[in-house]
Amino acid sequence: MPVKRVLCPERLRRVPAQFSWVDHRLVRDKHIRRCSSPALALYLFLVTVGDAEGLSYYGDSSIAGWLSLDPSVVPQARRELLSAGLIAYARPLYQVLALDPQCVGLPARTPPAAPLALGEILAQMQEAR
After folding, report:
1. Tens digits of per-residue pLDDT, 42-69?
2. Contacts of 90 by beta carbon, 8 Å cutoff, 6+ apart
3. Residue 90 belongs to what domain range?
4. Does residue 65 lie within any of the structural domains?
5. Which strands sit side by side in the sheet containing 87-90, from one edge to the other?
6. Whose CA is closest to 19, among 51, 56, 58?
7. What is the per-residue pLDDT for 115?
8. pTM
9. Helix (H/G/I), strand (E/B), else coil: 75
10. Up-side HSE of residue 26: CA atoms within 13 Å toward CB?
11. Which class for 44: exposed (0-12), middle (13-18), buried (19 or more C-beta within 10 A)?
């Protein structure tokens, strides 16, 4: 087994003040296998632009522009992330969700028929605790 060594010590990653690193459990717990490439691009974008609570307010056309996607692809990518339990969405608010161990292995959730209000999302989160 090769010995790991830092290749570029002057560029060693440090946890930034803002929330912007991808949780390794995305791969380790196989969440990544449940989504298409456009959905994973959207997830990476939302993780990167989200605040410390994972919240952001980007619109579909803006996201499509940043990700070089056809605007019609963004809603499908969002549905995949919702179904995989990786994000919550109440237009225009996105929240990247924690990858909690108790969520691993559960069947994918279907997105709600209508977007939930932020108060409803917060109430559901409170109930889950």
Report:
1. 999 999 998 878 899 999 999 999 999 9
2. 115, 116, 117, 118, 120, 121
3. 19-128
4. yes
5. 55-56, 93-96, 87-90
6. 51
7. 61
8. 0.67
9. helix
10. 17
11. middle
| Domain tally, the chain | 1
The answer to whether the CB of 67 falls within 8 A of the CB of 41 is yes
Q: Count CB neighbours of 95 within 10 A.
A: 20
- Tell whether 7 is covered by a domain: no
Q: What is the CATH number of the domain that holds 33?
A: 1.10.10
CA distance linking residue 40 with residue 47, whole number of Å: 10
Query: What is d(CA 3, CA 20) in angstroms, rounded to the nearest whole number?
Result: 28
Q: What does each C-alpha distance from 97 to 5, 51, 61, 71, 94 come to in angstroms?
A: 32, 12, 23, 24, 9
Residue 43: both structure tokens together? 């997830």
Does a structural domain hold residue 99?
A: yes
